[in-house]
Amino acid sequence: MGRLQYVWRSSLAAAHSFLRPPVEQVCRALLGSWVNVLLLCVPAGLALNYKSGPALATFVVNLLAAVGLLGLGDLAQECITSQVGTLYGALLYISTSNLMQMVSSIVLLAQDQLNMLRLSLIGSLLANILLLPALSILYAAFCRRDMAHDYYITKDHTLLLLLAVSSFLIPTVLDKTTVLPTACNAAVSRLVSVFLMLTYGAYFSFQLSTYRDQFSHFTRERNERADKLLISIRVASAIFVVTTALFYFCVDSVVNSLQELERDDGMGIGAFTGFILIPILNCDVAAVEQAGRSMDLMLMYTIGKCIQSALLVAPFLIVVSWGIGMVDLNLSFDLWMVSILFMSVYAVNTMVARQSFDW
């Protein structure tokens, strides 16, 4: 009997010593930001969704839960990039900069919410082209007087962004001005999508090899914040995977509650959610933080995120819809929205050409 008690106590002590460090690291991550208070909405939102709670309450709670998950996921990503080196950290950061937009877009595609999906794609581009640079310039104006940037660094990004947005014009104009069958328009969009994805692959390789110094400076500042938390790469990776999975279910609950609201109460908030709320979720304050130090990094961040949305996210969704036999999704958007997007890109190109910013 005494032998069994000794083995039992030894097993408990070993389990305690093994589990204590990861538990402490998770606690430090959860207490690392006040935004994590919104994580309390995650179980409540999922319970409301699967218990068929009120649609409006389900929508609000899951939307707040998604905001909290975004903050925790970004913190976990910082901890990962701080331990894998500058090159792989930059690779991970660039490749996951639009991960949440990709997740929300896949949810909308699975729910057959194509109109909301198109609105979210255009809204995300406009938010990163107009909203984030405007907030960044406003923040930089309070931090320092000199807001100059290197035009030769940002010129390549702005021109590529203009090319990426122009690629939306061909399928849109072809769809609006011709009477071709839907299958023909879908074929044109698929061909353009493959070309855009190949273009982004070349741009991605060029970006890593050419602007490594800039990314080294950016990842070093993120690493300084992450190193204070003392979170291992395994725990950070587990947190990142869990938050991404929970974000998928929260966005799925948001879409389901939207459908119920529009069906029962006739509340037309689907367009507002697709064009405003989902794009705001995809915005990251990292660009605003960088504006206080370097306008070059701010422009590379915001414009690079737009380029990834236009050259990778949207074409990838077209290819996915092609694979599942869905012909209704293509690169044809509302002509008025595409015009606004094109004028916004032109305005950014004009602003960048001045090589400095002011009020």
TrEMBL record:
Domain spans labelled Sodium/calcium exchanger membrane region: 82-208
Primary subcellular site in the record, as a coarse category: membrane
GO CC annotations on file: endomembrane system; fungal-type vacuole membrane
Alphabetic keyword roster: Ion transport, Membrane, Transmembrane, Transmembrane helix, Transport
Membrane-spanning parts: 29-50, 56-75, 87-109, 121-142, 158-174, 186-208, 229-249, 269-288, 309-327, 333-353
Biological process per Gene Ontology, one example term: intracellular calcium ion homeostasis
Membrane topology summary: Multi-pass membrane protein
GO molecular function, one term: calcium:proton antiporter activity
Pfam families xref list: Na_Ca_ex
Entry superkingdom: Eukaryota
Localization of this protein: Endomembrane system
Protein name in UniProt: Sodium/calcium exchanger membrane region domain-containing protein
Organism name: Cytospora chrysosperma (Cytospora canker fungus)
